[in-house]
Write a structure and sequence with these properties.
The complex is a heterodimer of chains A (323) and B (327). With 323 residues, chain A is α/β, with parallel strands linked by helices. Helices cover 32% and strands 25% of the residues of chain A. The chains are: A alpha/beta (323), B alpha/beta (327). Chain B: Pfam families: ABC_tran, oligo_HPY.
Chain lengths: 323, 327
Amino acid sequence: MTLLDVRGLTTAFMTGRGEVNAIEDVSFSLKEGEILGIVGESGSGKSVTALTIMDLLPKPPARIAAGDVHFNGQRLTGLNDRAMQAIRGPGISMIFQEPMTSLNPVFSIGDQIMETIAAHERLSKSDLRKRAIDMLDKVGIPSASRRLDDYPHQMSGGQRQRVMIAMALACNPKLLIADEPTTALDVTIQAQILDLLMDLRDEYGMAIMIITHNMGVIAETADRVLVMYAGRVIEEAPVATIFDHPMHPYTRGLLECVPSLTEDRPRLVAIPGTLPEPARRPPGCRFSPRCTYAVASCSAAIPPLEALETAHTAACFRARELA
Amino acid sequence: MTTPLIAATALSKHFEVGARGMFGLGRTATLKAVDDVSFTINAGETLGLVGESGCGKSTLGRLLLRLIEPTAGSIAFDGNEITRIGRMEMRGFRRSMQIIFQDPYGALNPRMSVEDIIAEPLVIHGARPGAETRAKVTEMLGKVGLPARAMDRFPHEFSGGQRQRIGIARALILHPRLIVCDEAVSALDVSVQAQIVNLLQDLQREMGLTYLFIAHDLSVVRHISDRVAVMYLGKVVEVADKATIYAAPRHPYTQALIAAVPAQHPAQRSRGKRERITGDIPSALNPPSGCRFHTRCPHVMPVCRERAPDLRETATGHQVACHLTDS
């Protein structure tokens, strides 16, 4: 069953150079229990997409210029603050890249987890405490009842991310949005956190939207993948398809420019040029100035996201011919 | 045997950390950021240095250039002992040793033009700004793939990748022999990272450079390095040529580190298939006794808690510090 449905979502920001669309015409959906990976580089709009869904962007300068978000059959776009607050937590929860800045340094982690639960459920103090200990246990914090009174600075980066996950899961959300959840962590800790997210999905059946710039994180976790570039979705497919038959030249480039852990390659296949800033995006296909396959028509119009095979879409005029 | 370009012997850097508190109470502790580390880098080669946060890899890079002074041990540059020489004498060697930093935003002075940034090392080493330095800056800009007109612009006008090119041009203008690349590509987007990696390799070939390539990304390190050293809590635990260390790592920490790298294809997902090390990296202020990895090691033995293993050669060019390989 479709849990989240995003249609034509366009979020604009007021800047010194006028209004700029951070994301444009973003559409996708997410089923119950599914893990959707959203991959992209700086300025691709992956975080803005998540923050728009959660209604966490300051308005102004942000504004939803077009499109709709439906969650569990309910329209979220246009919901007032109070109604949206009821969705955040039990409906959709979010974890961020930097667990240190997302936790309040002057409250114990127990207080912060209990505060989250208390905002949505009426429970006695002792029940709240029990639930918080239970949550810390679930996310693999050893001797949870003792750690409950610790402050964020007393924990390592990996443990803080576990605490963030505990807070996010405290109200049993149907969807967890994880925005670069392991980017600030060391690789051995990253592996532990990704394992934990997968375990939690299997156990509780929640859907996860995992946002990352790392194709490895996508390979490890996602069922389906959305590739974003300069504010637009440029390809979408099941995870194996993205890795085996990428259709968009950008997706191919993204896969090729990562060095191998097992093979020697004389030279990396780099994508020339740099990512365009939101206010200075090129006309037509935004990837065209960096694309080896670009032809004149590529800079004339924005290629639409077209279904090329079942469950596989790409936004490239030459996708069929190059496939 | 030829003299290595860099030979570090029993190098240590200990920091006194003031846990003195607000009223001068409490006591100081010693943080052994780098502890008794020995290694060599041959001319023209790239030694990759990997390890997780706090393992001491950046401190080690700065020690080599004497940007910080070692607590003990010595460094020889091309056969010359440089740890105990004076400032002026060190200056002569500094021309030959440069560093490229991680953050292309923080490493460039925003008020200086690109020309002044790149020419600064020349000026420090006695050149007078003028047509000659300008010509050298133009040449370096060309080498790093930037147009000559970039010279009159300022850092904020450039993207992260372009700024890193400016940092590389500055490091190379004195034609050094050794470059310490301290997480030089870590902050860049992957599509841009590949460009900079290629550029570093081209420049190495062209200018005969030797690199100490410090990074936490194991696949980038494999790609660019000839040999790789792995650090854990201030100690080098394994050194080998890259093919060996990635295909047949001997130290349990190296094994765990490589096993933790995310799969490059969904068919190779690691969950449930690869052994994971549990727990966090212990604090460098209070490192475990004996082998520092023993608290997380799946093969821990009683001796590991008591005695630190020495870094020993187990095969030609392959050094491991582990009691398992000692017997």
